[in-house]
Specification:
Elements (H helix, E strand, L loop, with lengths): L10 H27 L3 H27 L23 H22 L6 H28 L35 H27 L3 H27 L22 H24 L4 H27 L12 H5 L2
Helix pairs in contact: 1-2, 2-3, 2-4, 3-4, 5-6, 5-7, 6-8, 7-8
């Protein structure tokens, strides 16, 4: 029984804790800045809750790694944030971002929990799941009260249960396309919404980044996000579905950076990884061939963009290496 000995952290647990440390130290930086510029006290309350969560997560992870005599990751520090920088994002953007942050946390922790073995690590991720759900609910409730919540399209309820009778259900390249299913609509809608938010982020970052290469990278990212949004919106248009209107999430005209180039690059890299995961899940849940082809094509575009970002981070010495297995061949050479 595990209670009778002290197992070391498995490689999966080390990787999960390392990745979360990166994300939570980044979260402390971004939320601290948001708290300094937000005007709505109700949004401020949500930010305070999220900041407390991130700080507690960092303390727990440090405690676990210290007990294992494992190096503490570098992550992000006060040097990566300038909380007194002018407002770059609106209150509406901040609230929407926090709701999406909670949703990403739910997705990440739901993966982390079953991939952890030790009792203390599973207890930790169980707690993280509950707190992320609370963050999503608080943010969503406030968005509803403020009238800035964007809902997926409404469709009439079906009159009866149906079963697929023909291979036409898979069509999408040649011949008449069937109507989108509610599952496909859901994925298209939230992928569209995430790209709108992503475009706002990289557009704002392109205004304030100090490096020319980094600015150009963010400009390219904004163009990609807009292109992906257009692709998803066209599927709605072909089905005569009302394309959801987006809330006011555009950045201000500020050119003063609230974050270091390193932090902004890491955040966009993380969003690339999240987007790739969502596209993969959407591909698996979209039987129509044209949808599958679109997700495959757009995923390849994100991966190419992500590689460009990784090269920028490597060239600037910003890419912290995750713990890795030992190079046995090198050791054998002495």
């Amino acid at each position: 029984m595990e209670d009778n000995h002290n197992p070391k952290l498995a490689s999966s647990e080390v990787g999960l804790l390392w990745e979360q440390y990166q994300n939570d130290t980044l979260g402390i930086c971004t939320i601290s800045y948001f708290l300094n510029i937000v005007e709505d006290p109700k949004i401020s309350s949500i930010l305070e809750y999220a900041l407390e969560l991130a700080e507690n997560h960092v303390k727990v992870i440090r405690s676990i790694l210290d007990a294992e005599q494992h190096p503490i990751p570098m992550g992000f520090t006060e040097q990566d944030v300038h909380v007194n920088a002018p407002r770059l994002f609106s209150d509406t953007f901040i609230l929407t971002y926090m709701a999406k942050l909670g949703a990403i946390g739910l997705n990440s922790y739901s993966v982390a929990l079953p991939n952890s073995i030790r009792n203390d690590i599973r207890d930790f991720y169980t707690s993280c799941l509950h707190s992320s759900a609370e963050l999503v609910n608080r943010s969503t409730n406030l968005m509803l009260k403020k009238g800035v919540m964007v809902r997926p399209p409404y469709i009439p309820y079906p009159n009866q249960v149906e079963f697929v009778q023909k291979q036409h259900f898979l069509a999408g390249w040649i011949g008449e396309e069937r109507q989108l299913t509610t599952i496909e609509i859901t994925n298209l809608f939230f992928n569209l919404q995430r790209n709108v938010i992503g475009s706002s982020i990289v557009t704002g970052f392109s205004q304030v980044a100090s490096s020319k290469n980094v600015r150009q990278y963010f400009v390219k990212g904004s163009e990609i996000a807009k292109h992906h949004s257009t692709v998803f919106a066209e599927f709605f248009s072909k089905d005569n579905l009302v394309i959801p209107m987006t809330s006011d999430t555009a950045p201000t005209l500020s050119t003063v950076a609230p974050f270091s180039d390193k932090l902004m690059m890491f955040l966009v890299t993380a969003l690339n990884a999240v987007g790739t995961g969502y596209y993969g899940a959407s591909l698996g849940a979209s039987p129509r061939r044209d949808l599958g082809a679109a997700y495959t094509r757009l995923t390849a575009e994100i991966m190419e963009y992500a590689e460009d970002g990784a090269n920028i981070m490597i060239n600037n010495g910003w890419l912290e290496k995750p713990p890795s297995s030992p190079d046995r061949r090198n050791l054998a050479k002495g």
